[in-house]
Structures are given as C-alpha cells and as structure tokens.
Specification:
Strand content: under 5%
Shape: globular
Structural class: mainly alpha
Helix content: 55-70%
Number of strands: 2
C-alpha cells in the first residue's frame, strides 16, 4: 500500500522536467534580482558604491573592489578565499566590460552581476527541490513571486558576499534530495562545503550538517577511526589557516573581527535576543519600516537604514497584514513539514540551520538582519515544500495578502535611500 509521501513523489515532476523548469526559474530570478538592483539604484556612482553601511550595514562600497581583484590582496579569517577565488572570477567580466565602460564602473557592475548570478542559481536549486518533492504545482507557482520579493533580497543584490552565500547554501540543499547516489551526494557536499567555507567560514557548517543528516543511519565510529589521519590532517590545515590570520594579531585582540562585533546578546539580554530571533523568521520575508541614521561626517550626505533597533510596531498597515499572513503560511508549512515522513532529512537540516543562525547571531554580529541572507533561503524552502499539504485557495489567499506588503516595504526602502 502506498504511503501519502510515496503518492506525492509519484506525482511530482520528473528530474528532466524539473531541471528544465529550474533553469527557467534561474533566468526569471536573475532578471528579478537585476531589476531589484536597478530599482534600488545599486549602480556605479550611487551611495552603494561610495559609502558602506547604507543599507543594513552591507559593505558593498569596499567589497566590489575585492570581488573584482581591484584591491590589494589580504587574508580574512571569516572570508578566507573571497578575494582570491571570487575576485579572480569577477575580474573576468570586469575586464570585458572595461572595453565599453570606465574601469570602476565596469568592476562595480561585474561584482553586482556575479553575486546576482550565484544568488539566482540558488533560487533555481530551491525550485528543483520543490518540483521534485511537491506535487502541487499551482502552489509553487503562487509562492515563487513571494520568494523573489523577500525583503532580505535587498541584501543579495548588493556587491558583497551575501548573494554568493545565499546561492551556495541553497545549492547545498540539493544534497538532501532522496534517491541521489552516494557518489553524487558526497561530491555535492564536498564542493559546496569548500565553496561555502571559503566564502563565509561558518556557512561551511551547513553542508556538514546535511552530511550528518543524510548519513546518520550509516554512521559507524569505526569509520572515524579508519580515517583518523585524514580527519586530523584536515583539522590541522584548518587550524593553520586560522592561525595565519589570528596569531600575528594576538597582541591586539580587539583588532580581530571575532572580537569587534561580538555582542553576546543571548547572555546579556535574553528577552532582546528572543525578539531578534522572532524577527529573523519574519523580517526576511516582509520587513517593517527601517530606522534611519546619519553619519556625523559632513562629507557623508547619505542616510543609513537599519533594523537595529526595530520592533513589530514599526510595520505599516499594509506590510503588517503581510507579515501576519507570512507567519500563518510559515507556521502551516512548518507543521506540514513536521508531519511528512519522507521530508525528515529536510526538516532536520532546515530547522537545525535556522536555530543555529538565530543563536549564533545573537552572540556575534552587528546588524542582525544583515545575516538573514544565510537562512532566508530555508524559510523559502520550508514554504515551498510544506505547501504541498495546503489547499491552493489558502496559499492563494496568503500570497494575495503578502505580496502587496512586500512591494510596499521595498518601495519604502527605496524612498529612504535618498531621504
């Protein structure tokens, strides 16, 4: 007798059809992200190119140079191959654009385009997972616009590492698909693990989490002992890389990024940490009106937007309704995910990754919302997968309430950039 889960798998798209559809989603997502960048005026000569921290503390004004190998090489513990790997990749389109544009304009556009391409690959990967596991295609069709209008996408389109991390983490979720051969799964985990860690060190933990989830039933302590020398060598290499950057700066610990933005909020102010954690489930989809601050530097005329501090009472009426609808959709989808035996691997990995990030960034980090690009894709995937248990009319109603609020938030953010 077939289980509900097996019936769903029988009705989903074939791998070939899912691949074709996900490529189409990639193209649509890339166009959407580039349009969002244009809408926000993420362009050469704009505040994003001239000043850091303009929007949610993104360092795009410095990072676009690193992403196109236009700044002197430097070693970073948290992004140890960002410049050496992505900088070399970004330098290729930059040089091509330099035939038609001034060097700085070409580099800024190349960096922005590169992060949007990788982020769009992430959206395509989410689509592939959803099409292989969700038989309700109308629900998916309704939900993809919601994903493309996430407030956290304003971070992805800026020339920084967050768009890269979003895409690489979403691609890593493909390793959780049922039916993959071990060789394919291990290769995917290995490649995405390296790229995620090289881009943002802590994000290398998600592929490791995915590996632990999918291979948990076959874990044998004897295998760890058998490969003990390889494990020790990998640990030694990681320690040596970290020591290269940390040891020369031990005389002044306050000079390391680890200490500079250590907040320990969870220990110092647990109620505030709980508020930030709650916002981490809602703001990425539909954010409130950001607070504005201005630099005391008279040569810096730009306004800076932040969700530190902010509260749920900062929502405008339209975006407030959208946030409530999103909470209802996320809760229903999460419950459906919990009740689906065939989605156990996704449930463990996605929920585990969200919990880790909500705890970690209540201990370390400055602008909490800035890091939401590291887990916003999990919120999207939970909605996409969990919606297979929801009636289409309910999903359509939620989308009808969410999308206008998302558009209103994006419009407000754009207006405040030049306020």
């Amino acid at each position: 007798m077939a289980t509900p889960g097996s019936q769903n798998r029988d009705e989903v798209m074939s791998p070939r059809s899912s691949l074709i559809a996900s490529v189409a989603v990639f193209g649509l997502s890339l166009a959407s992200l580039l349009l969002l960048a244009r809408y926000l005026h993420v362009a050469p000569g704009s505040p994003f190119a001239l000043e850091i921290d303009v929007l949610f503390s993104v360092d795009g004004a410095d990072r676009w140079k690193e992403l196109t190998a236009a700044s002197p090489p430097r070693f970073s513990v948290s992004h140890f191959l960002l410049q050496h790997l992505w900088g070399r990749i970004g330098a290729v389109p930059a040089r091509l654009l330099e035939f038609a544009l001034p060097a700085d304009e070409a580099r800024f556009l190349a960096a922005t385009g590169m992060v949007c391409v990788v982020a769009a690959m992430g959206f395509g990967s989410l689509a592939f997972c959803a099409l292989r596991l969700n038989h309700r295609r109308w629900n998916l069709l309704l939900l993809f616009p919601v994903c493309l209008l996430f407030t956290s996408n304003t971070i992805l389109v800026q020339p920084d590492h967050f768009g890269l991390s979003f895409g690489l983490l979403a691609i890593a979720s493909l390793a959780l698909l049922p039916g993959l051969r071990d060789r394919t799964r291990v290769g995917l985990i290995g490649v995405t693990g390296f790229l995620n860690a090289a881009t943002t060190l802590t994000n290398g933990l998600f592929p490791a989490l995915a590996a632990a989830v999918v291979f948990r039933k076959r874990f044998n302590p004897a295998h760890v002992w058998r490969y003990r020398y390889g494990i020790l060598a990998a640990a030694a290499l990681g320690g040596a890389i970290a020591a290269t950057a940390i040891v020369p700066r031990l005389r002044d610990l306050n000079d390391t990024i680890i200490v500079q933005i250590l907040n320990l909020r969870l220990l110092k102010d647990p109620p505030a940490a709980a508020g930030f954690a709650a916002s981490g489930l809602v703001y990425p989809a539909v954010g409130p009106v950001p607070s504005i601050w201005r630099s005391a530097d008279p040569n810096n005329p730009y306004s800076h937007q932040s969700y530190n501090p902010s509260g749920f009472d900062d929502y405008a009426p339209l975006s407030g309704v959208a946030a409530c609808a999103w909470v209802a959709l996320l809760a229903a989808s999460s419950l459906a995910l919990i009740r689906s035996p065939d989605l156990r691997d996704y449930r463990l990995a996605l929920f585990g990754w969200i919990v880790f990030n909500l705890i970690f960034h209540n201990l370390w980090g400055d602008e909490f919302f800035l890091y939401s690009a590291h887990w916003s894709w999990t919120l999207m995937l939970i909605a996409l997968l969990g919606s297979r248990a929801l009636p289409t009319w309910a999903v359509a109603l939620a989308v009808a309430l969410i999308v206008p609020g998302q558009l209103a938030t994006l419009s407000t953010i754009r207006d405040l950039i030049f306020a």
